[in-house]
């Protein structure tokens, strides 16, 4: 999704800005641009191709400057054409980049037209540039502080004015913005990752903050207009995180990183303890009577899986909701519920808004399961469990999902223990299973050659069905999501028992039906559902545990999973589905890491 980089230095910063955009590329974008203050006015280059094209342009035109801003745009208002690409100018004096959506842009546009401003883009962003230009009286910092009071919606902005050649001003409300602190130079970015290589010292801005960066200073005011300091933290882990290494795509690299990611995520201690979730957790866990899980996309599916664990292991009622639905519906708050937000990025707009909505309804027990320690969600919740997947670049989430599952299983066992449903013997068994997971994952990854053979066939299909039951229904959902988002094959997932209630009408010899078949209590039921598919000519592609006695025969293709993994089986069974989607997408020649229309971190509604 949209990305911002800004810099004030004594050196030419164009390469820093372009490199920053390159580091944000993985988030998805459809145009990009950079502007610098050069020779007393802003100059820019914009591209509707890739950042590499923008780089070629700035080299060819010798664009240079010591102060500048840059942007990757994911279109919301207006098509991805050059006129709509940021930076957006106002009367060749102001240059501005913006993440988010300005909801009252139409009324502002009418007001500004009345003042003689001519609009050349279809963006909501252009109103901010003209508004700042119209209000500017020699102090950009003050102007932005006044101007943002008129904006409704979500934004992170960075702006420069030709009359202040060594100043960049930023502001945030609902979209992240971070200050990178250098020596004799300072930076702004929507994600600290953009500035890896330039600095490892960051101040994370809070909602409503406005910031001015100059060569040797950073000034911040909060939403009340009070001058504040934001803690500067050293975050060293960003450097080098975006190297592809020997892999063809980041998604492939991230699938193969899962054994390491799980090892880093599961607790080192020899027991499950509330303190794994923060200092307050032991009090809070003793006070709760239910869970409300809020998340989007793949993170929502990890919540759905966790519901099975939480209700069977911890015997605690659990409700899982899509964040974008929960935030707008009337619900009945239960102050004794633990609200759990699950997110790779910790910045997903809908999940953040759902969390704030829950808090506004009086929910005080909040926990984030998240991959980014410095994210808004971790900062807004009272407790957190950090997954240690490492930076996930591929838009299709893989290692973030399996590490979330590991974290949520730890939560279920911890609650089960506290509530008297997990004894010492069971606790030791669960811990041993968790510790063995990386080895088990390596055995599943070794199935890749067999999955590649299936992918060649899937690449020629236009539709696919995914079936699972119980704990593995959310895994079927995740498998279908993976396939559709990167291969563009239409895929749907159903609990296998639902087939006969409608989707069976879709089954013909042309329909591949991917089946997740663990050796659990529902196996015999699942086998009956498979027969329903075969009777209609459907082709079954089954990932079957070794002891299921499901064998390959006419119309039934079987890949045997190396071992049966009990309650943790979803973490193993999702991996072949990730590989199937990945190799199918490769065979179809799609842009695997940056699928069309999608963004890595969805920071707008
Ligand atoms: O960063 P989050 O986990 O909050 O993101 C939620 C979804 O946008 C994300 O999982 C999305 O569905 C992925 N592209 C799925 O692969």
Automatic annotation (TrEMBL):
It comes from the Bacteria. Residues 2-216 form the Glutamine amidotransferase type-2 domain. Its main location: cytoplasm. This is Glutamine--fructose-6-phosphate aminotransferase [isomerizing]. Keywords: Aminotransferase, Cytoplasm, Glutamine amidotransferase, Repeat, Transferase. It catalyses: D-fructose 6-phosphate + L-glutamine = D-glucosamine 6-phosphate + L-glutamate. One of its GO terms (cellular component) is cytosol. InterPro entries: GATase_2_dom, GFAT, GFAT_N, GlmS/AgaS_SIS, GlmS/FrlB_SIS, Ntn_hydrolases_N, SIS_dom, SIS_dom_sf. Transmembrane segments: none annotated.
């Amino acid at each position: 999704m949209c990305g911002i980089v800004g810099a004030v230095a004594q050196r030419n910063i164009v390469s820093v800005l372009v490199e920053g955009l390159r580091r944000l590329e993985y988030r998805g974008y459809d145009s990009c641009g950079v502007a610098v203050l050069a020779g007393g006015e802003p100059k820019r280059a914009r591209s509707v191709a890739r950042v590499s094209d923008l780089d070629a342009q700035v080299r060819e035109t010798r664009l240079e400057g010591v102060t500048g801003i840059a942007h990757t745009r994911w279109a919301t208002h207006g098509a991805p054409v050059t006129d709509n690409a940021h930076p957006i100018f106002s009367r060749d004096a102001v240059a501005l980049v913006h993440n988010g959506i300005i909801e009252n842009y139409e009324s502002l546009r009418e007001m500004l037209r009345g003042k003689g401003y001519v609009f050349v883009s279809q963006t909501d962003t252009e109103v901010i540039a003209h508004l700042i230009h119209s209000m500017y009286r020699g102090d950009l910092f003050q102007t932005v502080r006044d101007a943002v009071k008129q904006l409704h919606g979500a934004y992170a902005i960075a702006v420069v004015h030709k009359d202040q050649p060594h100043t960049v001003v930023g502001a945030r409300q609902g979209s992240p913005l971070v200050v990178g602190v250098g020596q004799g130079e300072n930076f702004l970015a929507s994600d600290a990752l953009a500035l890896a290589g330039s600095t490892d010292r960051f101040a994370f801005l809070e909602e409503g903050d406005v910031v001015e960066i100059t060569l040797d200073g950073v000034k911040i005011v909060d939403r009340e207009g009070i001058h504040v300091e934001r803690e500067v933290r050293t975050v060293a882990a960003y450097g080098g995180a975006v190297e592809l290494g020997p892999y063809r795509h980041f998604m492939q690299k991230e699938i193969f990183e899962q054994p390491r990611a799980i090892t880093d995520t599961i607790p080192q201690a020899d027991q499950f303890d509330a303190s794994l979730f923060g200092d307050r957790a032991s009090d809070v866990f003793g006070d709760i009577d239910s869970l409300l899980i809020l998340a989007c996309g793949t993170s929502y599916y990890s919540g759905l899986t966790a519901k099975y664990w939480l209700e069977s292991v911890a015997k605690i009622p659990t409700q899982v909701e899509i964040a974008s639905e929960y935030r707008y519906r009337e619900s009945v708050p239960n102050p004794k519920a633990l609200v759990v937000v699950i997110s790779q990025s910790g910045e997903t707009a809908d999940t953040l808004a759902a969390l704030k909505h829950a808090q506004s309804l009086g929910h005080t027990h909040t926990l984030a399961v998240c991959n980014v320690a410095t994210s808004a969600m971790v900062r807004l919740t009272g407790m957190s469990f950090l997954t240690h997947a490492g930076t996930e670049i591929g838009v299709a989430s893989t290692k973030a999902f399996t590490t979330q599952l590991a974290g949520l299983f730890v939560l279920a066992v911890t609650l089960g223990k506290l509530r008297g449903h997990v004894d010492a013997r069971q606790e030791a068994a669960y811990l041993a299973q968790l510790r063995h997971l990386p080895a088990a994952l390596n055995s599943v990854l070794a199935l890749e050659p067999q999955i590649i053979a299936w992918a060649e066939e899937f690449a020629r299909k236009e539709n696919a069905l995914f079936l699972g039951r119980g704990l593995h229904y959310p895994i079927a959902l995740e498998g279908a999501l993976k396939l559709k988002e990167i291969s563009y094959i239409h895929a749907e997932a159903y609990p296998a028992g639902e087939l006969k209630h409608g989707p069976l009408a879709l089954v013909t010899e042309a329909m591949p039906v991917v089946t997740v078949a663990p050796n659990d209590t529902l196996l015999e039921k699942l086998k009956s559902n498979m027969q329903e598919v075969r009777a209609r000519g459907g082709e079954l592609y089954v990932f079957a545990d070794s002891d299921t006695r499901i064998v390959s025969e006419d119309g039934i293709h079987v890949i045997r999973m190396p071992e049966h993994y009990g309650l943790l089986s979803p973490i193993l069974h999702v991996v072949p589905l990730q590989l199937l989607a990945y190799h199918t997408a490769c065979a179809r020649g799609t842009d695997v890491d940056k699928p069309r229309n999608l963004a890595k971190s969805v920071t707008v509604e």
